[in-house]
Amino acid sequence: MNDAPQQVAEPPSLGKLFWVFLVMGATSLGGGVVAYLRTGLVVRHRWLDDLAFVELLSISQTLPGLNATNMSILVGDRLRGGMGALVATLGMCLPGAILMTGAAFAYGIGGDDPWSKAFLHGIAAGAVGLILVVMVQLGAKVLKTPADYLFVAATAAAVAFFKVSVPIALLVAGAVAIWWHRPRDRTPR
Amino acid sequence: MKQLWDLAGVFSYLSLLTIGGGMAAFPELKELTVNTYHWVTFPELLHFYSLGQLSPGPNMMMVASIGAVVGHIPGAVVALVAFFLPTGLLTFAVGRLWTHLATWRWRPAIQTGLGSVAVGLVLAGAIIMGIGAITDIFYGAIGLAVFLLLWRTKINPAYPIVASGLIGMGMHYLGLS
Question: Containing domain of residue A171, as a range?
Answer without folding.
Answer: 144-189
